[in-house]
């Protein structure tokens, strides 16, 4: 195989992975936008029905502003994303099904985030991290005792000289804002990779969980012969995969509470530098939450591993060994008697069996026996279609439906109240009774939210509604005032940007 053919095969293999398949789809921007809106570092799992409703709401919002979106509903899209290995569905602690992002989806989001933010590809901080890592690994790889001692002596001499200089009153050189910001960006780049790394380990353990349980249930040998084998697999669980071995190596550091406390103190020291005044509150909170992120990732992996151990233990405990032994002994006796009978039986020999069994010594006998009448099909349903009521008309169904957003926007645009501003309540009360259903109030509030007018509402006003049956009811709703710019924005949604 030529070099280019080999490279092409490797690239195709990479594009077959769920991460690049997600980025290569037509609806990739929509899918990633949903994932970023529905999930976060603090909200890793979402209840299944709630995510279905959220996706439906996102679809409706995007359609209302003219964006092209998939034609399926929220439930169908979530199931499709789960089959594409972008979502992972499991049963939570409260017994409800919930979705979480797979490692492939987290990797895709990480790639998009890295492309959408400005960062220096080469910086002093990044190169220093590489140099320090190379020096540390080279020291570990070198078996020469004298070389290790020499390198340690050099480090001790350098640190001793710096300590003596500071003790003698030497100048303390602090990093500049630009240097600190470069280092901060490098740390954030490394920290953002942690969730996908932890998730990859979880998925590896879950896959091994399913494989071991499947093998256990399909095992034909007696349980006593395979018990030691599966217990050995459980003990070596984390060393059986590349992700597990990497996690075991890092876990020795991550379970050190003193080390994690030092990391937390160091993070606080970094944010005490003047450069941190340029960071937003969310960036500071996320940066300080690094230790919590590490602890949560460790807990999730250990919970997944403990789930495997619990499943195996319950399978072993609940397995009826006595029943297996009794069945095995019975089959062995039957085979023994069959071998004796075959010594004298001819080709067409038969076995005479008793028509009625002997008396059995049992504690309870069934008092009701099988009755075929109990399994007769039910009688055919009577045709009563002639008594069916008249179906509702289209107008009756429309009156019971949701808000008519387009007509509500048209009413707000065309309403001419007193003064230079338009009150949403005044425009609503001026409508004909057929358009003043209670549900239309929700439509008015949604329209006001589209132009960000609801945030200014501090007073209340009355909405006089008329139900489809003719009854009236008054609701107190925040008083929303639309200025000319907001009215023009609503007109653009209904008639286009060229409307006057």
Structure write-up:
InterPro entries: DUF3375. The chain is mostly helical. It is built from 21 helices and 7 strands. It has helices at 3-15, 18-23, 28-38, 48-64, 74-83, 103-116, 124-141, 145-167, 177-191, 194-217, 223-235, 242-254, 257-271, 281-288, 290-318, 321-342, 394-399, 405-414, 424-429, 439-450, 484-495, and strands spanning 45-47, 87-91, 97-101, 422-423, 460-466, 472-478, 481-482. It has a 3-stranded antiparallel β-sheet with strand order 1-3-2. A two-stranded antiparallel ribbon has the order 4-7. A two-stranded antiparallel ribbon has the order 5-6. Helix 18 (405-414) crosses helix 21. It is flat.
Summarize this, please?
The chain is built from 21 helices and 7 strands.
Tags for this entry?
mainly alpha, 3-stranded antiparallel β-sheet, 500 residues, two-stranded antiparallel ribbon, flat, DUF3375, 6% strand
The overall strand count is 7
Total of DSSP H or I helical runs spanning 4+ residues: 21
What share of residues are in beta strands?
A: 5-15%
Strand order of the largest sheet: 1-3-2
User: N- to C-terminal separation?
Assistant: 67 Å
Protein name: DUF3375 family protein
Pfam family, one: DUF3375
């Amino acid at each position: 195989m030529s070099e280019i053919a080999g490279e092409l095969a490797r690239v195709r293999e990479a594009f077959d992975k769920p991460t690049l398949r997600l980025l290569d789809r037509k609806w990739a921007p929509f899918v990633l936008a949903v994932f970023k809106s529905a999930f976060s570092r603090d909200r890793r799992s979402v209840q299944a029905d709630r995510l279905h409703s959220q996706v439906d709401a996102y679809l409706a919002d995007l359609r209302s502003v003219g964006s092209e979106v998939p034609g399926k509903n929220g439930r169908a899209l979530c199931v499709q994303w789960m089959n594409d290995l972008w979502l992972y569905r499991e049963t939570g602690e409260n017994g409800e099904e919930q979705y979480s992002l797979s490692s492939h989806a987290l990797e895709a989001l990480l790639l998009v985030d890295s492309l959408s933010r400005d960062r220096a590809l080469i910086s002093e901080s990044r190169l220093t991290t590489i140099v320090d890592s190379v020096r540390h690994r080279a020291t570990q790889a070198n078996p020469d005792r004298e070389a290790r001692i020499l390198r340690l002596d050099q480090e001790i001499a350098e640190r001793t000289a710096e300590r003596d200089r500071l003790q003698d009153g030497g100048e303390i050189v602090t990093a500049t804002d630009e240097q600190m910001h470069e280092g901060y960006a490098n740390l954030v780049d490394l920290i953002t990779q942690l969730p996908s790394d932890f998730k990859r380990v979880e998925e590896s353990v879950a896959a091994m969980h399913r494989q071991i349980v499947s093998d256990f249930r399909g095992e034909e040998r007696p349980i006593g012969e395979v018990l030691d084998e599966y217990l050995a697999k459980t003990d070596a669980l984390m060393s059986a995969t590349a992700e597990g071995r990497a996690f075991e190596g890092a876990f020795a550091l991550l379970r050190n509470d003193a080390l994690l406390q030092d990391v937390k103190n160091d993070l606080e020291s970094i944010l005490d530098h003047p450069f941190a005044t340029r960071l937003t509150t969310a960036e500071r909170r996320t940066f300080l939450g690094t230790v919590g992120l590490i602890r949560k990732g460790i807990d999730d992996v250990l919970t997944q591993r403990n789930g495997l151990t619990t499943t195996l233990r319950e399978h072993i405990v609940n397995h009826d060994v006595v029943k297996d032994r009794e069945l095995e002994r019975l089959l062995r006796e039957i085979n023994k008697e069959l071998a004796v009978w075959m010594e004298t039986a001819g080709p067409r020999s038969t076995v005479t069996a008793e028509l009625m069994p002997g008396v059995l010594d049992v504690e309870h006998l069934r008092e009701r026996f099988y009755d075929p009448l109990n399994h007769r099909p039910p009688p055919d349903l009577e045709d009563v279609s002639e008594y069916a009521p008249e179906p509702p008309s289209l107008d009756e169904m429309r009156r019971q439906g949701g808000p008519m957003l387009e007509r509500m926007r048209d009413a707000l645009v065309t309403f001419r109240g007193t003064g230079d501003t338009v009150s949403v309540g005044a425009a609503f009360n001026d409508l004909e009774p057929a358009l003043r259903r209670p549900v239309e109030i929700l439509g008015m509030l949604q329209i006001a939210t589209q132009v960000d007018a609801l945030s200014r509402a501090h007073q209340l006003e009355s909405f006089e509604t008329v139900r489809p049956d003719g009854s009236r009811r008054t609701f107190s709703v925040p008083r929303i005032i639309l200025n000319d710019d907001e009215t023009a924005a609503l007109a653009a949604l209904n008639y286009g940007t060229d409307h006057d």
